[in-house]
């Protein structure tokens, strides 16, 4: 999960290195935004070392580049502001935007968690309560300050929740949005390359973008994801995905079968080659004639094989068609014993291989749902939503 941690200028900022360490140990990718006053309490170097990401505090970098608050906001799956001072709470509640953290906050679409920290009289002040209530009414989640010893030496309500409790609060809250929690999801993506000789192959134009998008979204929804990926140069793969790289159709078959028995859901989006050369030349074939004849044999049908093996699993296939699209997809659905099939047509502009968008129809035995052209990240959400409706 991508987490932005916004640190403001309160004494509780000294706990933030411990919080960052805990988040990273859990496998999260943490980027940190400091306010100017926060740098007086905790150093960027410490936080950068622990998070393994550059720490930012202003719109302008040392080399006169721009820290893009919109990109930061869109990157985040969660934004946590901790400690949140009375000053920052007031700005957030009333639309003041005078630093990078606030600009990121106002641009955010991700869930936002706020952990206030201040002295007991400040925390009890009517304006602070009003601002916290206002932020909550905006949809922000407030992690309540706790009772304890404060920096002033007084004892009372206002102490920031401990890092472990902050993480537990976030995980408990987000678990409501983890419909795939406890599920193992198997996904295949990309092409396969079928060797002709040591330097040539038969392949296709698949990039794996659609399958990778599904894998990334499944992780965000709480699943244990195993991605069987053919040759692909795509790098936007969530670090929490169990990645199995393969080359040929037979490689993909073996890797997929090894994971299938223990999977709850299998979504096979890979563009597996239908044929492979009967004989692979051990040395590079020299160009001697004006033509070359290759004898091809069928590759194993991974989808059909899993359809015969499946027990409790949900099995979803893909159909990329150029004619009689719906009819061909339904035939594949029945013939291969699938629970659902995702149809996309090469005739639809913006759909198919190599694009960042796709236009699909999700087909089952009882329904057919068509979606408009969307970014593949959004298409992945649509596909998983339809799959969840089929949950056994």
TrEMBL record:
Pathway: Cofactor biosynthesis; coenzyme A biosynthesis; CoA from (R)-pantothenate: step 3/5; Cofactor biosynthesis; coenzyme A biosynthesis; CoA from (R)-pantothenate: step 2/5. Residues 1-171 form the Flavoprotein domain. InterPro entries: CoaB-like_sf, CoaBC, DNA/pantothenate-metab_flavo_C, Flavin_trans-like, Flavoprotein. Pfam families: DFP, Flavoprotein. Its EC number is 4.1.1.36, 6.3.2.5. Residues 185-392 are annotated as: Phosphopantothenate--cysteine ligase. Binds 1 FMN per subunit. GO terms for biological process: coenzyme A biosynthetic process; pantothenate catabolic process. SUPFAM superfamilies: CoaB-like, Homo-oligomeric flavin-containing Cys decarboxylases, HFCD. One of its GO terms (molecular function) is phosphopantothenoylcysteine decarboxylase activity. CTP binds at residues 274, 284, 318, 332, 336. It catalyses: (R)-4'-phosphopantothenate + L-cysteine + CTP = N-[(R)-4-phosphopantothenoyl]-L-cysteine + CMP + diphosphate + H(+); N-[(R)-4-phosphopantothenoyl]-L-cysteine + H(+) = (R)-4'-phosphopantetheine + CO2. One of its GO terms (cellular component) is phosphopantothenoylcysteine decarboxylase complex. Keywords: Decarboxylase, Flavoprotein, FMN, Ligase, Lyase, Magnesium, Metal-binding, Multifunctional enzyme. Residues 1-184 are annotated as: Phosphopantothenoylcysteine decarboxylase. Gene3D superfamilies: CoaB-like, Flavin prenyltransferase-like. Its cofactor is FMN; Mg(2+). Residues 180-389 form the DNA/pantothenate metabolism flavoprotein C-terminal domain. Catalyzes two sequential steps in the biosynthesis of coenzyme A. In the first step cysteine is conjugated to 4'-phosphopantothenate to form 4-phosphopantothenoylcysteine. In the second step the latter compound is decarboxylated to form 4'-phosphopantotheine. In the C-terminal section; belongs to the PPC synthetase family. In the N-terminal section; belongs to the HFCD (homo-oligomeric flavin containing Cys decarboxylase) superfamily. HAMAP family: CoaBC. This is Coenzyme A biosynthesis bifunctional protein CoaBC. It comes from Capnocytophaga felis. The gene is coaBC.
């Amino acid at each position: 999960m991508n987490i932005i941690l916004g640190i403001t200028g309160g004494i509780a900022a000294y706990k933030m290195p411990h919080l960052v360490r805990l988040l990273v140990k859990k496998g999260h990718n943490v980027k940190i935004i400091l306010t100017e006053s926060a740098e007086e309490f905790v150093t960027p170097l410490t936080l950068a070392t622990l998070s393994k990401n550059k720490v930012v505090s202003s719109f302008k970098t040392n080399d006169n580049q721009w820290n893009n608050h919109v990109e930061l906001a869109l990157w985040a799956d969660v934004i946590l502001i901790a400690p949140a001072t009375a000053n920052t709470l007031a700005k957030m509640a009333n639309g003041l935007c005078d630093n990078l953290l606030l600009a990121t906050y106002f641009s955010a679409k991700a869930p936002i968690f706020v952990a206030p920290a201040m002295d007991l009289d400040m925390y009890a002040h009517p304006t602070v309560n009003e601002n916290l209530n206002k932020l909550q009414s905006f949809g922000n989640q407030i992690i309540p300050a706790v009772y304890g010893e404060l920096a002033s030496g007084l004892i009372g309500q206002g102490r920031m929740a401990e890092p472990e409790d902050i993480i537990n609060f976030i995980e408990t809250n987000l678990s409501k949005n983890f419909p795939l929690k406890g599920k193992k999801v198997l996904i295949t993506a990309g092409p396969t390359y079928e060797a002709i000789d040591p330097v040539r192959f038969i392949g296709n134009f698949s990039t794996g973008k659609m399958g990778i998008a599904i894998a990334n979204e499944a992780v965000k929804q709480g699943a244990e994801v195993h991605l069987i990926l053919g040759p692909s140069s795509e790098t936007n793969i969530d670090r929490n995905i169990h990645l199995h790289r393969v080359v040929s159709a037979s490689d993909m078959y073996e890797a997929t079968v090894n994971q299938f028995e223990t999977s709850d859901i299998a979504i096979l989006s890979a563009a597996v080659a239908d044929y492979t050369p009967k004989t692979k030349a051990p040395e590079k074939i020299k160009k001697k004639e004006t033509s070359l004849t290759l004898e091809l044999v069928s590759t194993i049908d991974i989808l059909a094989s899993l359809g015969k093996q499946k027990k409790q699993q949900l099995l979803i296939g893909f159909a990329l068609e150029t004619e009689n699209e719906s009819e061909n997809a339904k035939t594949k659905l029945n013939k291969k014993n699938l629970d659902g099939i995702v149809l996309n047509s090469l005739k639809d502009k913006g759909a198919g291989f190599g694009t960042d968008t796709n236009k699909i129809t999700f087909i089952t035995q009882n329904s057919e749902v068509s979606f408009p052209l969307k970014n593949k990240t959004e298409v992945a959400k649509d596909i998983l939503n339809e799959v969840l409706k089929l949950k056994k």
